[in-house]
Amino acid sequence: MRQVIIVGSGPAGYTAAIYAARANLNPLVIASSVEFGGELMKTTEVENFPGFPDGVMGPDLMVKMQEQAEKFGAEIVYDDVTKLELEGDVKRVTLGNGDVHEALTIIYATGSAYRKLGLDDETRLSGYGVSWCATCDGAFFKQKKVAVIGGGDSALEEATFLTRFADIVYLVHRRNKLRASAALQDRAFADPKIQFLWNKEVAHVYGDEKVTGIGLLDTETGEEKTLDVTGMFVAIGADPRTHLIHDQLELTAEGTIKVDGRSSRTNVEGVFAAGDVIDPTYKQAATAAGSGVVAALDAEKYLAELSPELLALATTPAEAAAV
Ligand code: NAP
Questions:
Q1: Measuring from atom 33 of ligand 1, which residue has the nearest CA?
Q2: Domains in the chain, start-ordered, CATH in brackets?
Q3: What confidence score (pLDDT) does residue 320 get?
Q4: In this structure, which residue's CA is closest to atom 16 in ligand 1?
Q5: What is the pTM assigned to this prediction?
Q6: Using CA atoms, how far apart are residues 211 and 33, in angstroms rounded to an integer?
Q7: What whole-number distance in Å separates Cα of residue 9 and Cα of residue 245?
């Protein structure tokens, strides 16, 4: 039995792991089988994470966080959680391979999942021209025309990245004003390969086996026109990943896990949450990391107040070796 199990391996999960490991809590990190490292594994240069004045590649940053957690004794399992039982003093975590792990505390830091437009053909052509990740799929669109959907930071980052490959990147936004930060807007407006299409919603995705175009509805005139593109990158935000716990933990109106004030405490004793899964607003790598710190400290405090009988159920490797 563990003192702490951390579910998730983005900046929140790994930072919680660093703090919990340094507090000698012997944390186990369930890092996911495919999406370990979280969203930053899919980004390119991260320019706003403190400590990297020249920027750092997202995957490099996550590997460094992982190494730092492991250096202090965190153990990492690359599998997915299929079931969580959170009630009671001892929490149970079931993995895809059937293993069941127990812990006195859980830090839940599963981040968020990309939003979809909700069109049937978007799903059908996913992987065949429809993508949610320019860094993963951008190279398939050398000298092609592609569209990026959305008006936030993600959409502009994706669009700018795609200009490395595509001849023209259409930025399709449903309004005539971007939500993205000024720095990203300035860069995109100055890029001759990016063309902005305002007040447009995607009504159709065309193509039998691969995307050949998208139907754009003008929200002001109601007119629909086809845009010839072979790629559509959807960058319209993300929703907190709560499917494993939505019937066990209280959620907010925005769908994030509800925590007590500025803490990471959920409505279930011994269960803490951190990162994008509790944050409907800021969603930055640095804020997620800070949130992971809070969760590890809250878990440490909770454990320190448990009865000796309960604590004795979970042994650290050093204690186990000494027995
Ligand atoms: P976001 O800020 O929520 O922006 C989503 C964009 O997609 C908005 O422009 C929104 O339009 C549009 N949208 C939403 N649903 C849509 C739909 N069904 N159809 C068409 N358009 C739709 O999401 P994000 O860009 O992924 O960013 C999420 C968070 O991560 C933000 O806090 C952002 O600052 C942060 N982030 C930061 C960086 C960075 O600092 N480098 C990079 C990426 C993300 P409206 O504007 O009309 O609502």
A1: 153
A2: 2-114+238-322 (3.50.50.60), 120-234 (3.50.50.60)
A3: 47
A4: 236
A5: 0.82
A6: 29
A7: 17
228 assigned to active site? no
Predicted pLDDT of residue 249: 98
Residue 68's alpha-carbon distances to 34, 76, 109, 116, in angstroms, are 21, 12, 18, 34
- Please tell me which residue in 137, 153, 276, 298 is annotated as part of the active site: 137
- Reported residue count of the chain is 323
* Token code pair at residue 152: 């936030």
Distances from the Cα of 116 to the Cαs of 14, 15, 131, 307, in angstroms? 27, 29, 10, 46
- 10-residue stretch averages of pLDDT, the chain, 323 residues long: 97 98 97 89 84 94 97 97 97 97 98 94 93 89 98 96 97 98 97 98 97 98 98 96 96 97 98 97 93 98 95 71 47
Q: For residue 47, give the nearest of 181, 209, 211 by alpha carbon.
A: 181
239 is catalytic: no
Closest CA to 203 of 115, 114, 118: 118
Under 8 Å between Cβ of 104 and 311 = yes
* Ligand 1 centroid distance, CA of 201 (Å): 15
Q: Nearest residue CA, atom 37 of ligand 1? A: 153
> Strand 231-234's sheet: what is its strand order?
130-131, 231-234, 145-149, 168-172, 194-197
Q: Determine which helix (DSSP H) or strand (DSSP E) holds 56, and give its type and residue range.
A: strand 56-57
Structure token pair of residue 33: 């089988």
Residue 95 to residue 71: CA distance in whole angstroms: 24
Q: Both tokens of residue 188?
A: 């995109």
Q: Is 120 in the active site?
A: no
Test site for ligand 1: of 154, 178, 217, 287, most ligand atoms within 8 A of the Cβ:
154
Q: Of these residues, 136, 167, 186, 260, which one is catalytic?
A: 136
- Closest ligand 1 atom, residue 150 Cα: 7
Task: Confirm if 108 and 266 have CB atoms less than 8 A apart.
Answer: yes
